[in-house]
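Reply to dn_fold:

You asked what the input looked like. This is it:
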Amino acid sequence: MGVYLSSPKTDKASQDGENDRLRYGLSSMQGWRTTMEDAHAAYPDLDSSTSFFGVYDGHGGQAVSKFCAKYLHEQVLKHESYLSGDLGTSLQKAFLRMDEMMRGQRGWRELSRLGDNVEKVSGMIEGLIWSPRSGQVNGHFDDWPDEEGPHSGFDGPNCGSTACVAIIRNNQLVVANAGDSRCVISRKGQAYEMSKDHKPGLEVERERIRNAGGFIVVGRVNGTLNLSRAIGDTEFKQNKKLPAEQQIVTANPDIKTVELCDDDEFLVLACDGIWCLLVSSSQASNLPNAIVFVLSTAPPKAADAGDVTDKGNNRNMVLWKKMEYAS
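and this is what came back:
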């Protein structure tokens, strides 16, 4: 999905960071796409004991992945389940909340800004006539109040994004995933998967798709989308009789929780292009877009994370030393 360049952009944007609990490195590359459709979020200090990392692999445009990178972690923090220590529920609700926030005038306005797609005329009209509505929802203050305007009936974007998010609190790792980005732990030198790809051919996915009125052609939902779960993609979420979790394509994530131990060496979060590269002999320049995180307590170098993107060489990844965990 999308338009390709005549030659790939292989320049990488890389960074690293740390706190007293962990260190991380990340790298991203545009590749063949005309725009960088992927995004990431890195908040090693989400609160005093919690770190948040996420990768968002966009398709059909960049707006939804950027929206998730900007707002998903905020919604995790604000949910009452997070305050009570239920990280899994707060993650699930935050994923579903993204689709809700991208509707209506305000959703349209923010997506247009993030996607660099605001026409001058519509922007002038919007600025003249939109106005915020009441911020009360079910007796609680809504931090995303509706707005009146020419796009008040906007159902949401037809572009979309995967989301793979890892939260680390003390020794607990909670991963939420919707789509085909992945999270993997290196445990005693072996890959331990913290997520699974959501593809239309899986039985549980196929059953939901058909029950919601969809179909699968050559491995694609309704003949177009090769994912069965994603944020955005509103055209696949139009069955008014079903909740968000049961739509043809759903943003409802799988949640997996593990207790980290001394056997765990590092953690990798990456978009699907990285994983395709690591199991094939193709070069990184064949990737459409790519983002990779590597987390450990070894001194991270962004250039090392970049090597993973550039060469797809497993040996570059195992240079990261064993993680240590605060009690």
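The first helix runs from residue 63 to 78.
Hope that clears it up.
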